[in-house]
Amino acid sequence: MTSERRDTEFHIRAQDAADGPYELDIDPDRAGWGHSSLRVLRLPPGGSHTFATGDSEWIVLPLNGGCTVTADGGAPFELAGRKDVFSGVTDFAYVPRDAEVVISSAAGGRFALTGARCTRRLPARYGPASGVPVELRGTGNCSRQVNNFGAAGVFECDKLIAVEVLTPGGNWSSYPPHKHDESRPGEESELEEIYYFEIAAAHGSAGLGYQRVTPSGNGRGTDVLAEVRSGDAVLIPDGWHGPSIAAPGHDMYYLNVMAGPGAERAWLICDHPDHGWIRGTWPDRPVDPRLPLYDAPQASGTRAAPEASGARAAPGGSGTRAAPEVSGNLATPEAPEAPEASETPDTLPPADTLQAADTPQAPDAPAGDPR
Protein backbone atom coordinates (compact mmCIF):
# COMPACT_ATOMS: atom_id res chain seq x y z
CA MET A 1 0.00 0.00 0.00
CA THR A 2 2.85 2.38 0.76
CA SER A 3 4.28 1.91 -2.74
CA GLU A 4 0.85 2.51 -4.28
CA ARG A 5 0.42 5.76 -2.39
CA ARG A 6 3.86 6.91 -3.47
CA ASP A 7 3.14 6.09 -7.10
CA THR A 8 -0.06 8.11 -6.90
CA GLU A 9 1.75 11.04 -5.31
CA PHE A 10 4.52 11.24 -7.90
CA HIS A 11 2.87 9.80 -11.04
CA ILE A 12 0.36 12.33 -12.40
CA ARG A 13 -1.90 10.83 -15.06
CA ALA A 14 -3.19 12.83 -18.02
CA GLN A 15 -6.01 15.19 -17.01
CA ASP A 16 -5.50 14.56 -13.26
CA ALA A 17 -3.73 17.93 -12.93
CA ALA A 18 -5.81 19.87 -15.46
CA ASP A 19 -6.79 23.43 -14.57
CA GLY A 20 -8.79 25.73 -16.83
CA PRO A 21 -7.01 26.05 -20.20
CA TYR A 22 -4.15 23.86 -18.99
CA GLU A 23 -4.22 20.13 -19.70
CA LEU A 24 -1.49 19.85 -17.07
CA ASP A 25 -0.63 22.39 -14.38
CA ILE A 26 2.20 21.52 -11.99
CA ASP A 27 3.55 24.29 -9.79
CA PRO A 28 5.77 24.11 -6.70
CA ASP A 29 2.74 23.97 -4.41
CA ARG A 30 1.25 21.02 -6.32
CA ALA A 31 4.61 19.23 -6.42
CA GLY A 32 5.49 19.98 -2.81
CA TRP A 33 8.83 21.55 -3.65
CA GLY A 34 10.39 24.95 -4.24
CA HIS A 35 11.24 25.69 -7.87
CA SER A 36 10.12 23.69 -10.96
CA SER A 37 6.84 24.15 -12.86
CA LEU A 38 5.23 22.78 -16.02
CA ARG A 39 2.02 23.68 -17.80
CA VAL A 40 0.58 22.25 -21.01
CA LEU A 41 -1.69 24.74 -22.75
CA ARG A 42 -4.17 23.79 -25.49
CA LEU A 43 -5.45 26.58 -27.74
CA PRO A 44 -8.22 26.21 -30.32
CA PRO A 45 -7.83 27.85 -33.75
CA GLY A 46 -7.83 31.59 -33.20
CA GLY A 47 -7.45 31.13 -29.44
CA SER A 48 -5.30 33.11 -27.04
CA HIS A 49 -4.28 32.94 -23.39
CA THR A 50 -2.86 35.57 -21.06
CA PHE A 51 -0.92 34.74 -17.92
CA ALA A 52 1.30 36.48 -15.38
CA THR A 53 4.75 34.94 -15.00
CA GLY A 54 4.92 35.91 -11.31
CA ASP A 55 8.12 34.85 -9.56
CA SER A 56 9.14 32.42 -12.33
CA GLU A 57 10.89 32.48 -15.71
CA TRP A 58 9.27 30.45 -18.49
CA ILE A 59 10.04 28.93 -21.88
CA VAL A 60 7.09 28.56 -24.26
CA LEU A 61 7.75 25.40 -26.30
CA PRO A 62 5.35 24.25 -29.04
CA LEU A 63 4.41 20.57 -28.77
CA ASN A 64 2.30 20.76 -31.91
CA GLY A 65 1.30 23.81 -33.89
CA GLY A 66 2.70 27.33 -33.91
CA CYS A 67 1.92 30.45 -31.92
CA THR A 68 2.73 34.09 -31.24
CA VAL A 69 4.21 35.05 -27.86
CA THR A 70 4.18 38.63 -26.56
CA ALA A 71 5.66 39.73 -23.21
CA ASP A 72 4.60 43.03 -21.62
CA GLY A 73 3.24 44.33 -24.91
CA GLY A 74 6.62 44.16 -26.65
CA ALA A 75 7.39 42.97 -30.15
CA PRO A 76 5.88 39.51 -30.76
CA PHE A 77 7.86 36.31 -31.18
CA GLU A 78 6.43 34.25 -34.03
CA LEU A 79 6.99 30.55 -33.32
CA ALA A 80 6.74 28.35 -36.40
CA GLY A 81 6.37 25.30 -34.16
CA ARG A 82 6.06 21.76 -35.54
CA LYS A 83 3.57 19.07 -36.47
CA ASP A 84 4.31 17.07 -33.31
CA VAL A 85 7.19 16.16 -30.99
CA PHE A 86 8.21 13.19 -33.17
CA SER A 87 8.54 15.21 -36.38
CA GLY A 88 11.08 17.96 -35.71
CA VAL A 89 12.93 20.41 -33.50
CA THR A 90 10.94 23.53 -32.67
CA ASP A 91 11.72 27.16 -32.03
CA PHE A 92 10.68 28.63 -28.66
CA ALA A 93 10.36 31.82 -26.64
CA TYR A 94 11.77 32.79 -23.24
CA VAL A 95 9.73 35.16 -21.06
CA PRO A 96 10.98 36.64 -17.76
CA ARG A 97 9.52 36.81 -14.29
CA ASP A 98 7.20 39.70 -13.37
CA ALA A 99 5.74 39.95 -16.88
CA GLU A 100 2.33 39.62 -18.54
CA VAL A 101 2.44 37.19 -21.45
CA VAL A 102 -0.04 36.59 -24.26
CA ILE A 103 0.09 33.36 -26.29
CA SER A 104 -2.12 33.21 -29.38
CA SER A 105 -2.42 30.70 -32.21
CA ALA A 106 -4.16 31.15 -35.55
CA ALA A 107 -4.33 27.42 -36.29
CA GLY A 108 -4.44 26.18 -32.69
CA GLY A 109 -2.09 23.77 -30.96
CA ARG A 110 -0.57 22.56 -27.72
CA PHE A 111 2.24 24.38 -25.97
CA ALA A 112 4.44 23.43 -23.02
CA LEU A 113 5.31 26.17 -20.52
CA THR A 114 8.42 25.11 -18.64
CA GLY A 115 9.04 27.27 -15.59
CA ALA A 116 11.32 27.86 -12.62
CA ARG A 117 11.22 30.27 -9.71
CA CYS A 118 14.12 32.67 -10.08
CA THR A 119 15.62 35.91 -8.84
CA ARG A 120 17.12 37.56 -11.95
CA ARG A 121 14.87 39.16 -14.54
CA LEU A 122 16.44 38.39 -17.92
CA PRO A 123 15.18 39.85 -21.24
CA ALA A 124 12.51 38.10 -23.29
CA ARG A 125 14.14 36.26 -26.21
CA TYR A 126 13.43 34.06 -29.21
CA GLY A 127 15.19 30.69 -29.54
CA PRO A 128 15.56 29.48 -33.15
CA ALA A 129 15.16 25.79 -33.95
CA SER A 130 18.46 25.98 -35.84
CA GLY A 131 20.25 26.85 -32.59
CA VAL A 132 19.11 23.71 -30.73
CA PRO A 133 21.96 21.18 -30.37
CA VAL A 134 20.69 17.69 -31.24
CA GLU A 135 22.73 14.87 -29.70
CA LEU A 136 22.73 11.09 -29.88
CA ARG A 137 23.51 9.49 -26.54
CA GLY A 138 24.28 5.90 -25.63
CA THR A 139 24.49 2.97 -28.06
CA GLY A 140 22.60 -0.24 -28.79
CA ASN A 141 19.30 -0.47 -26.93
CA CYS A 142 20.40 2.46 -24.74
CA SER A 143 20.46 4.81 -27.76
CA ARG A 144 18.40 8.00 -27.55
CA GLN A 145 18.22 11.52 -28.96
CA VAL A 146 18.42 14.69 -26.86
CA ASN A 147 17.26 18.13 -28.03
CA ASN A 148 19.15 20.53 -25.77
CA PHE A 149 17.02 23.63 -26.28
CA GLY A 150 17.21 24.85 -22.67
CA ALA A 151 20.29 23.07 -21.34
CA ALA A 152 22.80 24.85 -19.12
CA GLY A 153 25.50 26.28 -21.38
CA VAL A 154 23.18 26.36 -24.39
CA PHE A 155 20.47 28.92 -23.60
CA GLU A 156 20.75 31.46 -20.79
CA CYS A 157 18.22 31.28 -17.97
CA ASP A 158 18.51 32.12 -14.30
CA LYS A 159 17.44 28.75 -12.85
CA LEU A 160 15.54 26.81 -15.52
CA ILE A 161 17.06 23.79 -17.29
CA ALA A 162 14.95 21.94 -19.88
CA VAL A 163 15.61 19.37 -22.62
CA GLU A 164 13.66 16.94 -24.81
CA VAL A 165 14.51 13.23 -25.10
CA LEU A 166 13.33 10.83 -27.83
CA THR A 167 13.70 7.10 -27.25
CA PRO A 168 13.00 4.61 -30.08
CA GLY A 169 10.53 1.84 -29.29
CA GLY A 170 12.12 -0.98 -27.28
CA ASN A 171 15.02 1.14 -25.98
CA TRP A 172 15.92 2.31 -22.48
CA SER A 173 16.88 5.91 -21.78
CA SER A 174 17.60 7.97 -18.67
CA TYR A 175 20.01 5.13 -18.03
CA PRO A 176 22.12 4.33 -16.07
CA PRO A 177 19.90 5.47 -13.19
CA HIS A 178 21.22 8.70 -11.75
CA LYS A 179 20.39 11.30 -9.16
CA HIS A 180 20.80 15.01 -8.45
CA ASP A 181 19.20 15.43 -5.05
CA GLU A 182 21.99 16.86 -2.91
CA SER A 183 24.49 19.65 -3.26
CA ARG A 184 28.11 18.48 -3.54
CA PRO A 185 30.14 21.30 -5.09
CA GLY A 186 31.71 20.22 -8.37
CA GLU A 187 30.07 16.77 -8.22
CA GLU A 188 26.29 16.95 -7.87
CA SER A 189 23.56 19.59 -8.10
CA GLU A 190 20.32 19.67 -6.14
CA LEU A 191 17.60 19.79 -8.82
CA GLU A 192 13.88 19.03 -8.75
CA GLU A 193 12.71 17.40 -11.98
CA ILE A 194 9.51 16.85 -13.94
CA TYR A 195 9.22 14.25 -16.70
CA TYR A 196 6.36 14.88 -19.16
CA PHE A 197 5.61 12.03 -21.59
CA GLU A 198 4.14 11.56 -25.05
CA ILE A 199 4.05 8.12 -26.69
CA ALA A 200 3.85 7.58 -30.45
CA ALA A 201 0.82 5.60 -31.56
CA ALA A 202 1.29 2.55 -33.81
CA HIS A 203 -1.01 -0.05 -35.40
CA GLY A 204 -4.08 1.50 -33.82
CA SER A 205 -2.61 1.48 -30.32
CA ALA A 206 -1.85 4.58 -28.27
CA GLY A 207 1.18 2.88 -26.71
CA LEU A 208 2.80 3.09 -23.31
CA GLY A 209 6.11 3.21 -21.49
CA TYR A 210 7.54 2.80 -18.00
CA GLN A 211 9.39 5.06 -15.58
CA ARG A 212 11.30 3.91 -12.51
CA VAL A 213 12.49 5.98 -9.55
CA THR A 214 14.14 4.36 -6.49
CA PRO A 215 15.02 5.89 -3.11
CA SER A 216 18.51 7.33 -2.70
CA GLY A 217 18.31 7.90 1.05
CA ASN A 218 17.73 11.62 0.57
CA GLY A 219 14.60 13.75 0.66
CA ARG A 220 11.19 12.12 0.43
CA GLY A 221 12.25 8.57 -0.37
CA THR A 222 10.65 8.74 -3.83
CA ASP A 223 9.75 5.23 -5.04
CA VAL A 224 7.87 4.93 -8.34
CA LEU A 225 7.21 2.25 -10.94
CA ALA A 226 4.79 3.96 -13.32
CA GLU A 227 3.15 2.85 -16.55
CA VAL A 228 3.15 6.14 -18.46
CA ARG A 229 1.03 7.20 -21.42
CA SER A 230 0.71 10.39 -23.45
CA GLY A 231 0.02 13.36 -21.22
CA ASP A 232 1.35 11.76 -18.03
CA ALA A 233 4.00 13.32 -15.81
CA VAL A 234 6.31 11.96 -13.12
CA LEU A 235 7.63 14.19 -10.34
CA ILE A 236 11.18 13.52 -9.12
CA PRO A 237 12.06 15.54 -6.02
CA ASP A 238 14.85 13.07 -5.18
CA GLY A 239 16.01 9.52 -5.84
CA TRP A 240 17.72 7.46 -8.51
CA HIS A 241 15.67 7.96 -11.68
CA GLY A 242 15.78 5.66 -14.66
CA PRO A 243 15.27 3.76 -16.72
CA SER A 244 12.63 5.33 -18.95
CA ILE A 245 11.47 2.38 -21.06
CA ALA A 246 9.77 2.68 -24.46
CA ALA A 247 7.51 -0.23 -25.37
CA PRO A 248 8.52 -2.00 -28.62
CA GLY A 249 6.91 -0.31 -31.62
CA HIS A 250 6.16 2.93 -29.75
CA ASP A 251 8.70 5.73 -29.70
CA MET A 252 8.76 7.66 -26.43
CA TYR A 253 9.16 11.42 -25.94
CA TYR A 254 9.74 13.11 -22.64
CA LEU A 255 10.31 16.72 -21.68
CA ASN A 256 12.59 17.25 -18.68
CA VAL A 257 12.14 20.38 -16.55
CA MET A 258 14.65 21.04 -13.77
CA ALA A 259 15.50 23.76 -11.27
CA GLY A 260 16.97 23.97 -7.79
CA PRO A 261 18.29 26.22 -5.06
CA GLY A 262 21.96 26.28 -6.07
CA ALA A 263 23.67 29.54 -6.97
CA GLU A 264 25.19 27.89 -10.05
CA ARG A 265 22.91 26.81 -12.88
CA ALA A 266 24.54 23.46 -13.55
CA TRP A 267 23.42 19.90 -14.23
CA LEU A 268 25.76 17.73 -12.17
CA ILE A 269 24.63 14.14 -11.67
CA CYS A 270 25.76 10.97 -9.95
CA ASP A 271 25.30 7.54 -11.55
CA HIS A 272 23.88 4.67 -9.52
CA PRO A 273 26.90 2.66 -8.31
CA ASP A 274 25.31 -0.65 -9.36
CA HIS A 275 24.63 0.39 -12.95
CA GLY A 276 27.18 3.02 -14.03
CA TRP A 277 29.39 0.31 -15.55
CA ILE A 278 27.09 0.21 -18.59
CA ARG A 279 28.77 3.34 -19.97
CA GLY A 280 31.96 1.38 -20.51
CA THR A 281 30.19 -0.96 -22.96
CA TRP A 282 28.88 1.77 -25.25
CA PRO A 283 32.00 2.33 -27.39
CA ASP A 284 31.84 -1.30 -28.56
CA ARG A 285 28.27 -1.11 -29.87
CA PRO A 286 26.70 0.84 -32.76
CA VAL A 287 24.15 3.59 -32.28
CA ASP A 288 20.57 2.53 -33.02
CA PRO A 289 20.21 3.13 -36.79
CA ARG A 290 16.74 4.61 -36.27
CA LEU A 291 18.39 7.71 -34.81
CA PRO A 292 18.31 10.59 -35.20
CA LEU A 293 14.55 10.75 -35.70
CA TYR A 294 15.30 14.21 -37.12
CA ASP A 295 17.99 16.89 -37.10
CA ALA A 296 17.83 20.57 -36.19
CA PRO A 297 16.94 22.74 -39.20
CA GLN A 298 19.51 24.96 -40.90
CA ALA A 299 19.56 28.67 -40.23
CA SER A 300 18.83 30.63 -43.37
CA GLY A 301 21.67 32.70 -44.78
CA THR A 302 24.46 31.63 -42.42
CA ARG A 303 27.66 29.72 -42.92
CA ALA A 304 27.54 26.06 -41.94
CA ALA A 305 29.79 24.95 -39.09
CA PRO A 306 31.24 21.43 -38.98
CA GLU A 307 28.69 18.90 -37.71
CA ALA A 308 26.10 21.66 -37.70
CA SER A 309 23.20 19.24 -37.84
CA GLY A 310 23.92 17.93 -34.35
CA ALA A 311 25.87 15.14 -32.77
CA ARG A 312 26.21 11.97 -34.82
CA ALA A 313 28.37 9.08 -33.79
CA ALA A 314 30.42 7.04 -36.19
CA PRO A 315 29.45 3.35 -36.25
CA GLY A 316 30.99 1.65 -33.24
CA GLY A 317 31.58 4.95 -31.43
CA SER A 318 30.10 6.03 -28.14
CA GLY A 319 27.16 7.74 -29.79
CA THR A 320 27.41 10.59 -27.33
CA ARG A 321 29.63 13.27 -28.84
CA ALA A 322 28.38 16.69 -27.80
CA ALA A 323 26.88 18.94 -30.43
CA PRO A 324 28.11 22.53 -30.76
CA GLU A 325 26.69 24.72 -28.01
CA VAL A 326 25.05 27.99 -28.93
CA SER A 327 24.00 31.11 -27.10
CA GLY A 328 20.44 32.00 -26.21
CA ASN A 329 21.26 35.70 -26.35
CA LEU A 330 21.33 36.17 -30.12
CA ALA A 331 17.62 36.30 -30.82
CA THR A 332 15.59 39.35 -31.72
CA PRO A 333 11.79 39.70 -31.86
CA GLU A 334 11.87 39.31 -35.63
CA ALA A 335 9.78 36.56 -37.15
CA PRO A 336 11.82 33.34 -37.58
CA GLU A 337 12.48 31.47 -40.74
CA ALA A 338 10.34 28.37 -41.14
CA PRO A 339 12.21 25.35 -39.75
CA GLU A 340 13.50 23.64 -42.85
CA ALA A 341 17.27 23.31 -42.95
CA SER A 342 20.26 23.50 -40.50
CA GLU A 343 23.37 25.42 -39.56
CA THR A 344 24.83 26.82 -36.38
CA PRO A 345 25.91 30.38 -35.57
CA ASP A 346 29.52 31.27 -36.30
CA THR A 347 30.25 32.28 -32.71
CA LEU A 348 29.97 29.60 -30.04
CA PRO A 349 30.41 30.66 -26.39
CA PRO A 350 31.82 28.45 -23.65
CA ALA A 351 29.42 25.99 -22.05
CA ASP A 352 28.42 25.68 -18.42
CA THR A 353 29.77 22.65 -16.57
CA LEU A 354 27.96 19.36 -17.20
CA GLN A 355 29.43 16.30 -15.61
CA ALA A 356 28.78 13.22 -13.50
CA ALA A 357 30.52 12.11 -10.37
CA ASP A 358 31.88 8.73 -9.38
CA THR A 359 31.57 6.93 -12.72
CA PRO A 360 34.08 6.55 -15.60
CA GLN A 361 32.78 8.15 -18.78
CA ALA A 362 32.65 6.61 -22.21
CA PRO A 363 35.05 8.26 -24.68
CA ASP A 364 33.60 11.29 -26.44
CA ALA A 365 30.60 11.45 -24.08
CA PRO A 366 29.27 14.67 -22.62
CA ALA A 367 30.31 13.98 -19.07
CA GLY A 368 27.71 12.30 -17.00
CA ASP A 369 24.54 13.10 -18.87
CA PRO A 370 22.40 9.94 -18.90
CA ARG A 371 19.48 11.41 -20.82
Characterize the structure shown:
By secondary structure, the chain is mostly beta strands. Helices cover 4% and strands 38% of the residues. It is built from two helices and 25 strands. Strands 2, 3, 4, 5, 6, 7, 8, 9 and 10 form a nine-stranded antiparallel beta sheet that branches. A seven-stranded antiparallel beta sheet has the order 1-21-18-23-13-12-11. It has a four-stranded antiparallel beta sheet with strand order 14-22-19-20. A hairpin with a 5-residue loop joins strand 5 (56-71) and strand 6. The longest helix is centred in the first third of the chain and has 9 residues, at 2-10. The radius of gyration is 19 Å and the shape is globular. The two termini are 31 Å apart.
